[in-house]
Structures are given as C-alpha cells and as structure tokens.
C-alpha cells in the first residue's frame, strides 16, 4: 500500500531521529561512550568532562515521547523498542559509579543543565524510562541527580534547570525542594516581557532560549506539579497562552525553504530551536491558527534544512558543529559534540499516534509559504 504524505514524513522523522540517537545510546548502554564519542569544540576549551552527559541528557529529552508511544507497528516499533531498551541500560551505566561510563553530575557547573534535560526526558516517558527500572537502578539515578544540588544556577534560564531537577525528585521520590521550584516559576513570571516572550534574566536576548529551555520547562513543571500548589496552578493558564503566542511567532519565522534566522546563542542546536512549537503539537495545545498538519510541514522543512546537509554527521555517525552542515565557527566556547543532541527536541511530535491529525492530515503550506506566494493571509496580532 502506498504511504500518504504524513506517513512519509513520519518515516523520515523516525529514521532521522534513530540515526541521531542510536550512536549515543548504543555506546552508553555498552559502556563505550567515553571511548568512542568524539569531542569536537570550536575553541580550545576542554569539554570532555561534561560533554557525555550533555549527549545523553539531551538525546533523552527529545527522544522520550517517541519511546513512550504505544500502538506502533512494523519497522517503527522495532526501532522504538530497540532504543527504549538501550536507553534503560544507558541510564544504569550513566549513574552507576562502578560503570566505565559513569557520567559527571558534580564537577564544574554544566552538569546542572544536562541533569535537567535528562530528567525532563524521563518525565516525558515515565512508563518506559522509569517504571521498568529495577529499584537499585532507580536509586542510582536519584542519587546521581541529587549531586547537581551543589551547583548554584545562573540568574537566568538556569533557575529552571534547578527547578526541573527538583520537580523530578518530587515526582519520583517525594524529595523535591519546593523553594527552588517556586523561586524559578515566580522569577520567570517577573521576567515576562510581553507578546509571548520572556527575558533570559532581566533583559531580552535575540535568541531561541524561550524555546530551547524557558517555555517548555515552565509548561512541563506546572503540568507535572498540578495540584501541588494553588499559586503554581494559577500560573498554568498564563504560561500556556504566552507559549501559544510564541509558537505562532515561531511558525511564522520558518521561511518557505525551511530556513530560519540564524540569530543568537546556541544556534548549533539546529532543529532544537523549535522545541516549543513541537511540544505544543505533542500536547495538543497549538493555537487555533495553527492546524497540526501545517506545523508538521513546517517542522519537517526545518529538520531537513538543518540535518540533511552534507557534513552534518561525521564518518562514524556523530553530529558535527554547525547549523546547516559542518560550520564550527558558529559554535560558542561552551558547545561541544554532546551539546548538539538538543536537536532531538524538534522531534517531540513523534510521541503522537500515527493516526493523529498531526500525521494523518493532508499537507498544508505554512504561513511563510502562503504569504510569500502572494496569497491573501490574515495579519499577525500581538498578545495583549
């Protein structure tokens, strides 16, 4: 039977996400991540002590919803099941001090960031990444994650990394520090600047951190802790309304060819710049102006534009520094090979059933395609 456009898109997404994720999970599950993963940096800064947790945590953050998907069949289910098994074995090796691949959760400051991405992934698919773990492995993960409590977060989006870690500890062990969570949520409420945009700290930054970190974590922290605190529950509505506005802005930034402005820090995260748009699709929370199939087309174009170009992967299948191919000069000093795996968060809608409108709907041009083809199109409006 011939596959429809949405099925073809999904097949491409699955194959690309598997291509990205498999080297990381296979190596770590078999105790070979440190031995085999290259550590490319654009500047003479040693990132070997932090890059492996970056690779694993960020891979799980984006891969988890697909690992948690049910009702899949055929080749897609075989790939999903394979990676789910590798991910669980990798969690054990990452957090077991006796493992040759025991990862760094305490040295330097970067582990706070990637422990947060790691637990965000677990929370996105607990039925696959937490409940099946034996008690000893769960305790190893909890103790490893607790180590990042010694790291003081920067006074910006890093507050949310601390809050995400505590949200995880609250959910799985009843040991979360509610003050760290409350501080991060209330402070970001103070940093809201208007029209769907938060400052990264007190000031606006022209970059994608509203999507890399800020809005996805705000949404999921209050979602995970629903009912725990009336003050946090009261923030859920405003957080969602602002996220929907920012998602609408993101969709309009995707050019007819799938490119987008190469602005701000961490542009080498590639498709990860659109995590928020992908997350709202996953959670059936897109604004009414964005039909799911339209978002599928836009995100597929972004993924192809950022991950298909020659030079994106090295000869052994590891990601290289860049946005569209190998472009090491685009990377900041804090970026290394492991950092690049945040691109996986652009794939979050794979957690939706293939029958969902996101995948089954007929292709629809996205906003930039319509406007720049001369089609009459509704004007954009700010969020009051």
Topology:
Layout: H1 5-29, H2 33-36, H3 51-67, H4 74-95, H5 110-124, H6 126-129, H7 135-146, H8 158-173, H9 178-190, E1 192-194, E2 197-198, H10 209-224, H11 230-253, H12 275-282, H13 292-307, H14 357-360, H15 367-372
Antiparallel strand pairs: 1-2
Task: Explain the overall architecture.
The chain is an all-alpha fold and 384 residues long. Helices cover 53% and strands 1% of the residues. It has helices spanning 5-29, 33-36, 51-67, 74-95, 110-124, 126-129, 135-146, 158-173, 178-190, 209-224, 230-253, 275-282, 292-307, 357-360, 367-372; strands at residues 192-194, 197-198. The chain has a two-stranded antiparallel sheet with strand order 1-2. Strand 1 (192-194) and strand 2 form a beta hairpin. Helix 8 packs parallel to helix 10 and helix 10 runs parallel beside helix 12. The chain is globular. The mean pLDDT is 97.
Oligomeric nature of the chains: single chain
What is the terminal separation in angstroms?
49 Å
Estimated helix fraction: 40-55%
Using only C-alpha atoms, the radius of gyration works out to: 20 Å
> What's the total number of strands?
2
Low-confidence stretches: none
Q: Helix- and strand-based class? A: mainly alpha
Which percent band covers the strand fraction?
under 5%
Q: State the strand order across the main sheet.
A: 1-2
- Count of DSSP H/I helices: 15
For the biggest sheet, the summary is:
2 strands, antiparallel
Helices and strands, in order, run as HHHHHHHHHEEHHHHHH
How would you sum up the global shape?
globular
